Each structure stands twice: as structure tokens, then as C-alpha cells.
Amino acid sequence: MLEKNIRIASDAEIVDEAIMSRRSVRAFLPDMIDDDTIRAILAVAARAPSGTNMQPWRVYVTKGEVKQRISDAILNSGIRAEKVEWDEYRYYPDQFFEPYLTRRRANGFGLYGALGIGRREVDKMRAQHDRNFVFFDAPVGMIFTIDRRLNQGSWIDYGMFLQNIMVAARGRGLHTCPQAAFAPYHRQIRPVLNIPDEEIVVCGMALGYEDTSKPENEFRTDRAPIENWVSFAE
């Protein structure tokens, strides 16, 4: 029994470390990730649960020239992020309210503060946001889609799949940044990747090794205490 408990504790520590060390990294090294590693991460992630095992995910893995074409198509579109139309799905509420407004502001101020960007330096904020569209210089950029005929349950399944990718990446010493910012630019992305009309662009994700020299990667988000959002009933 003691041996079993030690093994369980060791396994829990490994899993917890992968989850706790996951964060949105916004500056990557150029070191390439081999295809076998990417395939292994995605294969593990696909063990995510899905209603009646529908497995609603579709992944487009991009590197090199194709990844650059996606970046160019978005950055040369002339459509600013604050003006872009979220016409496939809504990620955020039309009007933020508490406690979400405070959390959102803390996230933005914390990131820009780490970069030395002041609250009125709009051009610098825009430039930082645009780094989404070069996948924060990661060597691998993934675009995720879902069949538009599926319902909300499949989107829940999709979230578990995405989380699995990020945790599996951490287990291999890699980092990620999930990026909803790509979703409203589906018109620019579709022709590059030949994405059919029946698929909705869910998000993008950067994958690579963290550049620890960059100040933006020193920023850490907080989490609300468990007492704030958990109720136990017997």
C-alpha cells in the first residue's frame, strides 16, 4: 500500500506540474519542433472525451512559408483588431461585468506593464496585439476548426482537447499560447489552408520553446481562491 501511495503521489506531482506550469507564452525561440513530436502531442490530446465519441476537432498545423502566408494575409488585410467582426461566433460578452471586467483589466494591465507599455500608448498596444498573428514568433502555428453543424456540447469537448494539447506540450518541455484572435480573420485564413465553408475557425495556437529573455514571459496571471467559486454539498 505504501508503494502504491508513493507512486500515486509521484504521478500526481508530474500531472500537476504540467497543468500548473502551462501559461500563455508570448515570445518563442525559433528552434523547430519535429513533426513526430507534434503528432505525438496531438494523438495524446485526442484522448479527450467527446459526446458519443464524435471527436469534433480538425487541426491545421503550419510552419515556414504557409505560416507566414497566414500572418501576411491578416496583417495586410487592413482590418484592425478593434474593428474586426466576430461573425462566426462570439467569444466575449457585448458588455463586460464584474468580476470579469476586473479580471480582464488586470490581465491587460499586467501584460502591458511587463512590456513597459503605458495605458495611453495605443499604438504600442496594437503592435503587441498584432504579434498574435505571427504566432509570437513560434515555429509552429496551429489553426483549429469545427463543423458549423455541431452544437454547444461539441465546443465543450473541443475545449478539453485544446487543454490536452497544452498539457501534453508541457510534458515535452514545450509551451503554447491559445489564440482566439485568429477566429474573426477566417476569411483571410480560409484560402491559405483551403478550409471548407462548413468549418468554423475556432482559434489558433502557437507551439514552441519559450524565449525566457523576453519580459512578456515574466508576466503571470492570478487565479481566484477556490472558496470564491466552489460549493460543497452533502
Describe this structure in words.
By secondary structure, the protein is α+β, with helices and mostly antiparallel strands. It has a domain at 23-90 and 132-221: NADH Oxidase. Helices cover 40% and strands 12% of the residues. The protein contains 7 helices and 4 strands; from the N terminus they run H-H-E-H-H-H-E-H-E-H-E. The protein has a 4-stranded antiparallel beta sheet with strand order 1-2-4-3. Helix 2 crosses helix 6 and helix 3 (64-75) packs antiparallel against helix 7. The radius of gyration is 19 Å and the shape is globular. The two termini are 29 Å apart. The mean pLDDT is 96. Residues 19-209 form the Nitroreductase domain. This is Nitroreductase. InterPro entries: Nitroreductase (IPR029479), Nitroreductase-like (IPR000415).
N to C succession of SSEs = HHEHHHEHEHE
Give me the count of strands.
4
Shape: globular
User: CATH homologous superfamily of the domain at 23-90 and 132-221 - what is it?
Assistant: NADH Oxidase
| Rounded mean pLDDT score | 96
Summed up, the helix count is 7
Structural class: alpha+beta
Specify the CATH architecture of the domain at 23-90 and 132-221. 3-Layer(aba) Sandwich
Q: Which fold name is given in CATH as the topology of the domain at 23-90 and 132-221? A: NADH Oxidase
Q: CATH first level of the domain at 23-90 and 132-221: which class? A: Alpha Beta
Low-pLDDT stretches are none
Percentage of helical residues?
A: 25-40%
Strand order of the largest sheet: 1-2-4-3
In angstroms, what is the radius of gyration? 19 Å
What is the straight-line distance between the termini?
29 Å
The largest pleated sheet is described as:
4 strands, antiparallel
Bin the strand percentage: 5-15%
